[in-house]
Design goal:
The complex is a heterotrimer. Helix content of chain A is 23%, strand content 33%. By secondary structure, chain A is an alpha+beta fold. A 6-stranded mixed sheet of chain A has the order 7-8-9-6-1-10. In chain A, strands 3-4-2-5 form a 4-stranded antiparallel sheet, covered by helices on one side. Chain B contains 2 helices and 6 strands. Classes of the chains: A alpha+beta, B alpha+beta, C alpha+beta.
Chain lengths: 185, 93, 985
C-alpha cells in the first residue's frame, strides 16, 4: 500500500479569495521553497560561507555569526541532496527547514513605507543594500529579511506565525493596495 | 517609546529585539567552590547605579548573548560585545 | 458685531466656504481656518467654561498651548473630547460641542462655583472634603467629578484605524517656522536625509502670520517658496500635521501624525493617526517661542488673548478679533500687533504699556499709555471694557478685545524631557534650553532669539554645522533680507498689582495669583509642591502658558530670582496623544501574534475546541454530537485512549536540533541526569535544573547520530530553554563544539497512544514496529508507506503504548488524516490537551503544575535521576543544600476522595484530618486535579509535607475559595498501570 500525502501551505486559507492580478505593490508567497539552516562549527565559518556563496541557485541569508539559511525560492533541489553536499564539507551542520519557514517576497514602489510599519531597521539602500540580509523582528515576530532589489525584499518567518505576519503585512499595505498571491498562480 | 542597541553582528536595533538578564560581572564558580562563592553567584547582586556591564540577549536577531556596557541611570551605551568575547575583552583592558 | 472676518487677506481660501456646527448651531468658515478662527469670524468668542469655577472663556492663543477653547469634536463613536479649537483644522460638516457646562454654554449652572471660590482655593481638595471620611467616596468625589472637569469620553469602540511606523534620518527638524525651514533647506541642499515635522496643518510657523517681508516676498510666500524647494528634494521628508511629542533614549523621537483627523469621513484604508518613531542622527529644535500672558485682574474674560493670537487671527485667517481692540504689553510685540491691526483698518483704542519708557512707537492716532497696568475687565460673556491704573489714578477704557503681551518663553519642552532642566537667563528673562550635547540643539526663537532675521540665520547656521560634523559639505546659505521686522524685547512684568478681580496664572485649572501665595504660606514652597497643591500646570496644557509666570510670581513672592525657583519637570507628551495612536494596529485580531499548529486544520475538521496557551492555539477537546459539555468529550477521549487508541497534536512542544562533537558533553552538563552514553536511536527523559537546584524544565532528548541530537521541551518553556542553552553554550562553555537551532516549526508531531497504537501505526509506517525491533524509548528515522521520511519516537505521556510521529509540517494534516483512516476500525479518536492532562494525572506524570519553580527533582519523586557522580551540571552544587533536601519538604502524592464523586480543585490546600484551617496547619496543596474516567472517581496530584511517608493517611482538602472541604486518602501518584505493563506492551 502506498499512501499519498497532500502538502498544504499554511497560508492556503489566508490567500483564498484574493484577486490574482497583482498591483504594483505585491506579496508573492513561494509554495515549495527549499530552506536549510546551516551551522558552521568553530573555526570553519569562513570556509563554510565561501562554499555557500558559491552554490548555484541557492541564496545565502545571514542569521548570525556562523549561522545561515540557504534558500531556493524555486525549490529545485532536494533537501537531502543539499544536506549531503554540505555534510561532506565537514565543518557545517545542516538541517532542512523548508516546512518550518514560510518564504515570501514583497515588492513595489511603496515597499519601504509598508515595511517601515512592520520593522525598525533602516532600509535606505545606502544602509541596507541589495544582497544584504539579517534576522530581525518583523510584525513582532523573529524573521529574516533580505533585500533582493531596490524595491524588493524577501521575508522568511516561522510557519506557525506566518498567518499572523501575513495578515499584519497586508493590513499595513492596505493604503497602498497591496495584493498577494502564491508564486506561479 | 524606544531605545536602541547596536548589536555587533546585526547593527542598530530597538530594545524590543532584546531580553536583558542583568549584571554580566559574576562568573560561574567551579563545582568544587565554597558555598559562599555559589551563594554570591546565584543570589547576590550589587545593583550598582551608573556604568555597568549587562547581559543582553539578541532574541529577535542573531540570538547571540551580548555584553552591553552602559550607564543604567542615563542609558548612555559605551560598548556592545559578544558575550563569548567578553572575558577576553576584559582581560585585555 | 465685535469680531469679524475682514474682506481680504490671510491664508484662507475665500472661494471655499465650509459649513460646520457648534453646539447645534450652523456656521460658515473658510478652507484654511481653524475651528477657533472660524468661530471668531462668526463673532463667537465664548468657547468654553473653566474647569473649577465654570467661568466663561474664549481662546487665549491661536495654537497648541490653548487652555480654554477645548471642545468635543465629532459625534457618535468618533466624538473626541478636549480638542483645542485653536488647532482643529476646519472641514466641511465638522460638529463641535462645548464642554463642562450645563444646561448650555451661555447659561451654565455650574457658574455658582464662582460664588464658592473662597472655599475652592489652593489645596481645597485636601482641606474641605476631609470629614466625615465616609463622605469622600459616596458624596464628595462624585460631586466634584461632575462639577469640575473636561469633556466626556465616549464609551463606544473606536471605529478608526491607527498605525505605527519607523523613520530614519540624518537630521530631524522639529518645527517648520523660520529657523526650521532654513535648517531643513541647508541640510537638504547638502544631501542629508532630512525630516521636517510641524504640528500645524500648514507649514511655515510664525511666517504665516508675519507682516514683514523676507527675501523680497511676503513672509508667508517666502515660506511657500522654501517648502516648494524642499518638496522637490528626494532626501527631504515633510511631515505636516505631525507633533514631535517626545525625545527618548538613543535619539528616538516620538511623533504623532494626524493623517485623517481633518476629514469628516476618514478612508478605511488609511489610519486616522499614525505614531512615528523617528531615529535621527541629529536633531534641531525649532519649535519657536510662546508668548506669555500678563497676569492682571480679569485676564480670563473672553476676548482677552495674547497679542500673537490677535495678530495670527488677523494676518493668517483674515479675522479681526474685535472692532475696538486694546493692547496691554510689556514689550515690542504689543506694538507690532497694534500696528498690524491699524493697517488693516481695525480700531485700536489704546496701547497700555507696563513700562515707563521704550523706543516703541504706536501707530498714528493710537493713544499710548505708559507706566500703566490693567486692574480689571468688564463684560459678561466677552470683554466690553477695562480699567487701568496709572500713578494711583484709575481710568476706564472701552474695548471689545484685549491683546496682551507678557514677553516670550522659548519652547524648550523636548530638550528637557530626559532630565536636563531649562536654564534661567537674566538677559532674556526666560528659561532657555539646556545644553544636552551636540546631538540635539535649539535654533531660532526656541534658542531665545527674538528677531526674524536672527532666527532665519540661526537655523541655517546650525544645520550647516551639523552637516559639516556628519561629513556633508553644506552650500553656504544665501543671506535672506528681512524688511520691516520689529524689536520683540520686553521688560518682565510677572503680575500687575492692584487687581480688582481674579488674576489667573493657569487658565485651564483656574489657578489665580493668591493661590500661589497660599501655597507658599502653607509650606508648599518647592515649585513641584506648589504645582500639586494649587494644580497650576497640571491641566491638559501642562503649564505651557502659565508655567513660567508661575515660577516668576513665586520668585517675586519669595524675593528671589526665577532661577532659584526653577521649573517643574518636563515629560512626554508635549501635547496629548490618543491611546489609539499609542496602540497602533495592535487591537482586535492584531493585538498579538497567533501561533497555529501544523495540525490546526486537522483539529478543526475533527471538531476541536481550542485553548490559548501562550501564543499557541491548542486543541483542547473534540466535541461530538450528543455530548453535553467538555467533560463528556474528555471522558470519552480518555476511555477511548485507554481501551483503543487516540491521536493528539503535540506539535507545539519545543524542538531543538543539536550538533557537534561537544553535544554529548553539553547535554550532560545541561541535564541533571546522565546523557554521555545515550545510544544512537534512543530517546531519554531529561530533567533540567536551574542553578539554584530547582527544576527548570523536562522533556526528551534523542540521539540521532554520533554528534546529532534532537531535544524536546515543554510547550510553555520552549523559548526559555532555547535561551538557556544559548546562554550556557555562549557564556559558560564557548570552548565546547556544539551548535543548535530551533526546528519547532519544521515538524508536525502527533502522539498515537493506546493498546491499538502499534497496529494502527504499522499501517502507516513501513518499518518493523514490533516491541523487539522498536522497543520503548526508540527514536529513529522511519519511512511512511510509500516514500515519506519521518521521525518516530516510542515515548508516552499517557502510560499507554504510544508513539510520537514527526513529519514535515506541510504534510502533517495529510498524515494525521491517514492515521485516523488507518485506525477507524480500531475505534481511534482525536484527543486534546484536556484528555492528555487527565491521562498524565492518572499515570502520575508531572507538568509545570508540579514543576512550578519551587520543586526539586526529589520533591516530585525523580530524585534518583540526579547523576551526582557527574563532575558538574547546572544546578548540581546548590541542589544539595540543606533546605532542598530537608525531610519535611512538600512531596508529590496522589489523592483519592473518600466519596469518589466529591470534586477536588487544583489550588486547594491540605490539612490534617481534624485540623483548623490556618497557615500554621497548612500541609501543602493540590497541584493538578481531574475526574478520572478510568477510576470513575475524582483524583488529584498534590504536594504534601513529607508526603511519601504518609501513604494511606486520611487528610482534608480545604478549598477556601469555594468553601468546600473534601476528605481524601493519600496514595501513590500513579493511579493506573503502576508496573508499566501497558507502556511496554
Amino acid at each position: 500500500m502506498t499512501l499519498h500525502f497532500l502538502h498544504r501551505h499554511v497560508l492556503e486559507d489566508h490567500l483564498a479569495g484574493f484577486e490574482t492580478r497583482p498591483n504594483p505593490n505585491h506579496v508573492t508567497v513561494y509554495r515549495r521553497p527549499l530552506i536549510l539552516s546551516v551551522l558552521a562549527h568553530a573555526g570553519q565559518e569562513a570556509a563554510v560561507f565561501a562554499h555557500l556563496a558559491g552554490m548555484p541557485g541557492m541564496d545565502v541569508r545571514v542569521c548570525g555569526p556562523g549561522e545561515w539559511m540557504i534558500v531556493s525560492a524555486a525549490g529545485s533541489r532536494r533537501a537531502e541532496e543539499v544536506a549531503e553536499e554540505l555534510g561532506a564539507l565537514g565543518g557545517a551542520s545542516v538541517i532542512d527547514q523548508s516546512d518550518g519557514k514560510v518564504l515570501l517576497s514583497i515588492g513595489g514602489p511603496s515597499v519601504r513605507k509598508i515595511l517601515a510599519k512592520c520593522l525598525a531597521v533602516d532600509l535606505h539602500p545606502d544602509v541596507f543594500a541589495e544582497g544584504q540580509s539579517a534576522n530581525m523582528l518583523c510584525c513582532h515576530v523573529a524573521a529574516n529579511l533580505a533585500r533582493t532589489g531596490l524595491e524588493m525584499f524577501e521575508i522568511t518567518v516561522p510557519r506557525s506565525l506566518a498567518g499572523s505576519v501575513f495578515e499584519e503585512l497586508m493590513e499595513m499595505g492596505r493604503e497602498f493596495a497591496l495584493t498577494a498571491s502564491f508564486s506561479g498562480g | 517609546m524606544a531605545s536602541l542597541i547596536t548589536c555587533p553582528h546585526c547593527g542598530t536595533r530597538p530594545k524590543e529585539e532584546f531580553a536583558i538578564r542583568g549584571d554580566a560581572e559574576p562568573r560561574r564558580p567551579s563545582a568544587g567552590d565554597r558555598d559562599e562563592a555559589w551563594l554570591g553567584y546565584v543570589y547576590t547582586r550589587d545593583n550598582r547605579k551608573g556604568r555597568i556591564h549587562e547581559y543582553w540577549h539578541h532574541a529577535g536577531g542573531c540570538r547571540r548573548w551580548l555584553v552591553v556596557e552602559r550607564d543604567n541611570l542615563t542609558h548612555a551605551v559605551y560598548g556592545v560585545t559578544d558575550a563569548a568575547q567578553f572575558p577576553k575583552a576584559e582581560a585585555a583592558e | 458685531m465685535t469680531s469679524y472676518r475682514l474682506d481680504a487677506g490671510g491664508a484662507v481660501n475665500r472661494a471655499q466656504a465650509l459649513e460646520f456646527s457648534f453646539d447645534g448651531r450652523s456656521y460658515k468658515g473658510l478652507q484654511g481656518d481653524t475651528l477657533a478662527s472660524a468661530l471668531l469670524a462668526n463673532d463667537q468668542v465664548l468657547m468654553g467654561r473653566s474647569f473649577k469655577y465654570h467661568r466663561p472663556r474664549g481662546p487665549v492663543t491661536a495654537g497648541s498651548a490653548e487652555p480654554n477653547a477645548l471642545m468635543t469634536i465629532g459625534s457618535g463613536a468618533r466624538a473626541e473630547p478636549n480638542a483645542r479649537a485653536t488647532t482643529v483644522e476646519l472641514y466641511q460638516g465638522l460638529v463641535a460641542a462645548s464642554q463642562n457646562r450645563w444646561p448650555s454654554l451661555n447659561h451654565d449652572f455650574g457658574a455658582v462655583n464662582s460664588l464658592l471660590s473662597p472655599f475652592l482655593g489652593a489645596g481645597f481638595y485636601y482641606k474641605t472634603f476631609m470629614w466625615p471620611a465616609a463622605f469622600w467616596e459616596k458624596v464628595y468625589e462624585p460631586l466634584i467629578r461632575r462639577a469640575a472637569g473636561l469633556g466626556k469620553l465616549v464609551l463606544q469602540a473606536d471605529p478608526d484605524r491607527y498605525e505605527k511606523s519607523w523613520a530614519h534620518c540624518d537630521l530631524l527638524v522639529v518645527g517648520a517656522g523660520p529657523a526650521g525651514l532654513m535648517a531643513a533647506l541647508v541640510a537638504g541642499r547638502a544631501g542629508m536625509r532630512v525630516i521636517l515635522a510641524d504640528e500645524g496643518f500648514q507649514a511655515g510657523g510664525s511666517l504665516l502670520c508675519e507682516s514683514a517681508s523676507v527675501g523680497g516676498q511676503p513672509a508667508a510666500a517666502f515660506a511657500g517658496t522654501v517648502l516648494d524647494e524642499l518638496a522637490g528634494l528626494p532626501n527631504v521628508t515633510l511631515m505636516a500635521r505631525t507633533t514631535v511629542f517626545g525625545w527618548y533614549d538613543d535619539m528616538v523621537f516620538g511623533s504623532v501624525e494626524r493623517v485623517q483627523k481633518h476629514l469628516a469621513s476618514p478612508s478605511p484604508d488609511l489610519p486616522v493617526e499614525r505614531l512615528w518613531r523617528i531615529v535621527a542622527k541629529r536633531a534641531i529644535l525649532a519649535s519657536g517661542a510662546e508668548e506669555r500672558p500678563l497676569v492682571f485682574g480679569g485676564n480670563d474674560r473672553p476676548g482677552v488673548m495674547t497679542a500673537t493670537a490677535a495678530r495670527t487671527y488677523l494676518n493668517r485667517y483674515g479675522v479681526a478679533v474685535g472692532g475696538k481692540v486694546a493692547v496691554f504689553t510689556n514689550g515690542g510685540a504689543g506694538y507690532r500687533t497694534a500696528a498690524d491691526l491699524a493697517v488693516r483698518g481695525v480700531e485700536v483704542t489704546a496701547i497700555i504699556d507696563a513700562r515707563g519708557q521704550s523706543s516703541d512707537v504706536g501707530p498714528a492716532g493710537v493713544r499710548v499709555i505708559r507706566n500703566a497696568g490693567v486692574i480689571s475687565t468688564r463684560g459678561k460673556r466677552r470683554i466690553d471694557g477695562l480699567v487701568l491704573e496709572r500713578s494711583g489714578f484709575e481710568e476706564a477704557i472701552d474695548c471689545d478685545a484685549l491683546a496682551m503681551s507678557g514677553g516670550w518663553s522659548p519652547i524648550v519642552h523636548l530638550m528637557c524631557q530626559r532630565g536636563a532642566k531649562p536654564v534661567w537667563s537674566d538677559e532674556a528673562q526666560a528659561f532657555l534650553a539646556p545644553d544636552v550635547g551636540s546631538g540635539f540643539v535649539a535654533a531660532g526663537s526656541s534658542a531665545g532669539l527674538t528677531s526674524l532675521s536672527a532666527c532665519l540665520r540661526d537655523g541655517a547656521d546650525k544645520a550647516a554645522t551639523i552637516a559639516a560634523e556628519l561629513g556633508f559639505s553644506a552650500v553656504p546659505a544665501v543671506p535672506v533680507e528681512v524688511e520691516g521686522e520689529y524689536d520683540a524685547s520686553f521688560a518682565p512684568v510677572w503680575y500687575v498689582p492692584g487687581a480688582k478681580d481674579k488674576a489667573f496664572v493657569d487658565f485651564q485649572n483656574d489657578v489665580a495669583v493668591q493661590e500661589l501665595g497660599i501655597a507658599q504660606r502653607e509650606g508648599f514652597r518647592h515649585i513641584e509642591h506648589t504645582k500639586r497643591y494649587t494644580t497650576a500646570g497640571m491641566a491638559t496644557d501642562q503649564g505651557k502658558l502659565g508655567g513660567v509666570n508661575t515660577a516668576g510670581i513665586v520668585a517675586a513672592m519669595r524675593g528671589v530670582t526665577p532661577a532659584e525657583i526653577g521649573t517643574t519637570t518636563f515629560r512626554p507628551f508635549y501635547t496629548p496623544v490618543s491611546f489609539g495612536a499609542l496602540a497602533g494596529a495592535a487591537q482586535g485580531s492584531h493585538a498579538a501574534p497567533v501561533r497555529t499548529s501544523p495540525l490546526h486544520g486537522w483539529a478543526k475538521k475533527n471538531g476541536a475546541s481550542f485553548v490559548e496557551s501562550g501564543l499557541w492555539y491548542r486543541s483542547a477537546w473534540f466535541g461530538r454530537d450528543g455530548e453535553k459539555g467538555w467533560r463528556d468529550s474528555v471522558d470519552r477521549e480518555v476511555r477511548t485512549v485507554r481501551a483503543h487508541a487516540g491521536l493528539c497534536d503535540v506539535s507545539t512542544l519545543g524542538k531543538i536540533e543539536i550538533f557537534g562533537t561537544g553535544a554529548a558533553e553539553f547535554l550532560n552538563r545541561i541535564y541533571c541526569n546522565a546523557f554521555l552514553r545515550l545510544p544512537i536511536g534512543k530517546a531519554r527523559y531529561g530533567l533540567m535544573l536551574r542553578e539554584d537546584g530547582i527544576v527548570f524544565d523536562d522533556g526528551t532528548t534523542s540521539r540521532l547520530g554520533d554528534n546529532h541530537y534532537v531535544m524536546t521541551t515543554t510547550t510553555a518553556y520552549a523559548a526559555e530553554v532555547m535561551t538557556h542553552l544559548e546562554f550556557c553554550a555562549q557564556t559558560f562553555w564557548p570552548e565546547l563544539d556544539v551548535r543548535f537551532v530551533s526546528v519547532s516549526d519544521q515538524w508536525a508531531q502527533m502522539s498515537l497512544a493506546g493498546p491499538k497504537a502499534r497496529i494502527i501505526m504499522s499501517r502507516v509506517v513501513q518499518d518493523d514496529l514490533s516491541d523487539a525491533a522498536f522497543p520503548f524509548l526508540s527514536a529513529r528515522s522511519v519511512t511512511l508507506r510509500g516514500w515519506l521520511k519521518a521521525r518516530l519516537f516510542r515515548i508516552s505521556f499517557s502510560g499507554e503504548l504510544a508513539y510520537e510521529l514527526a513529519v514535515p509540517a506541510g504534510l502533517g494534516e495529510a498524515v494525521a488524516d491517514a492515521i485516523m483512516d488507518a485506525g477507524r476500525e480500531e475505534g481511534i479518536c482525536a484527543y486534546g490537551v484536556e484528555a492528555l492532562n487527565v491521562l498524565r494525572i492518572e499515570k502520575g506524570f508531572v507538568t509545570h503544575s508540579e514543576l512550578d519553580g519551587r520543586t526539586t527533582a526529589d520533591d516530585v519523586g525523580l530524585g534518583r535521576m540526579m547523576a551526582m557522580q557527574k563532575p558538574d551540571f547546572i544546578g548540581k552544587r546548590l541542589s544539595t543544600r540543606f533546605g532542598l533536601t530537608a525531610a519535611d519538604r512538600l512531596q508529590l502524592v496522589g489523592l483519592k476522595p473518600v466519596e469518589p464523586d466529591k470534586q477536588i480543585q487544583a489550588g486547594a490546600h491540605l490539612l490534617k484530618e481534624h485540623a483548623q484551617p490556618s497557615l500554621a496547619n497548612d500541609q501543602g496543596f493540590v497541584s493538578s486535579a481531574c475526574f478520572s474516567p478510568t477510576l470513575d472517581s475524582f483524583v488529584a496530584l498534590a504536594m504534601l509535607k513529607s508526603g511519601r511517608e504518609r501513604m494511606g493517611e486520611r487528610i482534608n482538602v480545604w478549598d477556601a475559595l469555594r468553601r468546600v472541604e473534601v476528605p481524601v486518602d493519600v496514595c501513590s501518584p500513579v493511579f493506573v498501570d503502576p508496573d508499566n505493563i501497558k507502556l511496554h506492551a
